[in-house]
Write a structure and sequence with these properties.
Layout: H1 2-11, H2 14-34, H3 39-52, H4 56-65, H5 69-85, H6 89-97, H7 101-104, H8 108-120, H9 125-141, H10 146-162, H11 166-177, H12 185-201, H13 205-222, H14 225-241, H15 245-258, H16 270-283, H17 287-301, H18 310-322, H19 326-342, H20 348-364, H21 367-377, H22 396-416, H23 420-436, H24 440-456, H25 460-474, H26 481-484, H27 488-499, H28 504-513, H29 517-526, H30 528-531, H31 540-550, H32 555-562, H33 566-580, H34 585-594
């Protein structure tokens, strides 16, 4: 039957395959009922066969099913590093749940990696501490070797990274590397990763990126997919912060290749790359592609750590807001909040979730709810934070890391309340800080908010200067949503910039991405006598073409920008001329400007 099953899908199709599978399932049930005493032995034989074929996962499954727990513990311990390096955390944890404690305690390395996997899975500090202390106590009953002491140091360092205490984590790793065996691939590459983070902590971005690249190469040579992909995602985030979105995309695509098995299946750690890639596509306004990546990332993250889906839900919420689906956006934020509440390894996720929820309130116009958040966190000058939101001294690094993001949200709130002076005072300090940190992404966002603050304080010249700075920094990376998510006030400013010849091609692209609804409103505002000139409405694609015509682009350049044929652009132009009752591109642009369409 097994031989037939192997060939049936190719010879007779899926129906025959399903028939054989059903036959085998019924035979298995019959075997369990009639020959119960043979079942353990058959599982042992199956385990030996699978092990001989190099199919370790299946061998372990059958060994556990045979209740030969000592052999199962030995098999798992021998292969645990390879399993973790493939990011198959849930598989390992499921095996550990089926192993009785007395067998686990006999295997020190198994105890060690069980604690490590629980930490990666997002278990509470109490659970981690219980297993950690139990592991150390078991070791002390004999004698902790220098190798095991070094392993414990790396584990302690990994715990400290969750608390953003990279300085002490790096010190532990330097000590550990002197005593870790050369063949301890998982831990050596993990220690190298933590040491590379130290360079980033002190603001050495360029050398930090190079260090991450070296760790990624080392991890890939060692076969540590978990570390390699994680490090490449760290590197991509640095490129994003510097405004290099295309470079970040290329790094993430490399990470996805590494996180793909020989048969094309994605390993669980691929979720990190998918979530980062999805957020870049969201920024580029490729919302459907972004959503697909994020959804796949969420599904894969469940195979190693639910915490992995946290940032995916926040990005998904921003997509829903862009689509004006506020109910779905609210649900996505609530999913992120639930994940944050479950994880107790760090308070950072809870604070980030609250911050994003405050942003959501502002975009909804719920100023009171956003101000309640600001007062609760103590980001409003002169207001003390509520006691339960204050982090202890050991988490000062988290506080300092998060504060700049919270102040940007507060500045957005001030703009929404038309408190221009308060907003500008806050933004000036943030602008200096973001430049010092070489954070192009934050600088763009701050300049956009400065433009809005200048606008509401009746300083149009300064508003245009701030917006021009934002456009100049954003154009190389192709940013879109960072502008459009601020709503109609920014779109009106971009239209003014376009009319003054500021970044014409880029402003045309942004206005085209803002969609036709507001353009149709402009037609209505111009008056029914003029609007009737459009016997047929301008389509969304025609509006894109019209704005690119206004930017002075040729038909070929427009075709390249929109990824269509030149003949298609020509057809759109012909349609636009007919609808607007003009005969030239300059006439179409002039007519569109007269009615405020562009």
């Amino acid at each position: 039957a097994l031989i037939i099953l192997n060939f049936a899908p190719f010879e007779e199709g899926a129906i025959w395959s399903c028939f054989i599978r059903s036959f085998l399932q019924e035979s298995h049930k019959h075997l369990l009922k009639s020959f119960t005493e043979l079942v353990p032995e058959l599982h042992r034989r199956a385990s030996s066969w699978y092990e001989a074929q190099g199919l370790v996962d299946e061998a372990i499954d059958h060994t556990l099913a045979s209740h030969d727990f000592e052999r199962a513990a030995t098999l798992i311990e021998e292969n645990v590093e390879a399993i973790l390096m493939r990011s198959q955390i849930m598989i390992f944890l499921n095996w550990m749940e089926n192993l009785p404690d007395e067998h686990v305690q006999k295997h020190p390395l198994l105890c060690f990696y069980h604690t490590w996997a629980l930490l990666m899975n997002g278990q509470s500090p109490e659970v981690i501490d219980y297993h950690f202390q139990n592991m150390v106590a078991t070791q002390e009953e004999t004698e902790i070797t220098s190798t095991m002491a070094a392993r414990i140091s790396v584990l302690r360092a990994y715990i400290l990274t969750f608390q953003a205490d990279i300085q002490h984590a790096a010190a532990l790793c330097r000590q550990a590397l002197d005593h870790l065996p050369e063949n301890d691939l998982f831990l050596r590459s993990t220690a190298a990763w933590i040491l590379s983070l130290e360079r980033l902590r002190v603001g050495d971005l360029q050398n930090g990126i190079l260090a991450l690249d070296e760790v990624a190469r080392l991890g890939q040579n060692m076969g540590n997919t978990l570390i390699t992909v994680g490090v490449l995602c760290d590197q991509a985030r640095l490129h994003k912060r510097q405004g290099h979105l295309q470079q970040a995309k290329l790094v993430l695509e490399r990470a996805l290749q590494i996180a793909t098995g020989h048969q094309g299946q994605r390993l669980p750690i691929a979720s990190k790359a998918l979530i980062e890639l999805g957020d870049i596509k969201r920024e580029w306004n490729r919302l459907e592609e972004a959503e697909a990546d994020l959804v796949e990332g969420i599904e894969l993250s469940r195979q190693w750590s639910e915490m992995g889906a946290f940032y995916a839900y926040l990005s998904l919420a921003r997509i829903r807001m862009a689509q004006q689906d506020m109910d779905s956006a609210s649900r996505a934020i609530e999913n992120a909040c639930q994940i944050a509440r479950k994880s107790e390894n760090t308070d950072l996720d809870d604070l980030v979730a609250d911050l994003q929820q405050a942003n959501f309130f502002i975009r909804q116009g719920d100023v009171a709810a956003a101000m309640h958040w600001a007062q609760k966190r103590g980001v409003v000058p002169g207001v003390s934070p509520e006691p339960h939101t204050v982090l202890d001294e050991s988490q000062d690094l988290i506080n300092s890391h998060l504060r700049k993001y919270e102040q940007i949200v507060l500045a957005r709130l001030f703009v929404r309340q038309r408190q221009a002076t308060e907003a500008l005072n806050l933004l000036e300090a943030l602008l200096a800080q973001s430049k010092e940190l070489e954070r192009i992404d934050l600088t763009i966002e701050i300049q956009i908010l400065r433009a809005l603050a200048f606008q509401i304080s009746d300083q149009p010249t300064q508003a245009m200067e701030a917006l021009a700075q934002a456009l100049s920094l954003a154009e190389p990376g192709g940013y879109v949503r960072i502008f459009l998510d601020e709503g109609q006030p920014v779109i009106r400013l971009i239209r003014q910039a376009a009319s003054r010849g500021i970044a014409p091609a880029y402003t045309a692209k942004l206005l085209a991405a803002s969609g036709p609804p507001e353009a149709m409103e402009k037609i209505a505002e111009y008056g029914s006598s003029h609007a009737q000139a459009f016997i047929e409405p301008i389509s969304e694609r025609e509006l894109e073409v019209l704005r690119l015509l206004a930017a002075g682009m040729t038909n070929r350049e427009i075709a390249e920008e929109l990824f269509v044929a030149v003949s298609t652009v020509h057809s759109h132009c012909k349609s636009i001329y007919g609808k607007m009752d003009v005969h030239t591109r300059s006439g179409a642009v002039q007519r569109a400007q007269e009615i405020g369409l562009i």
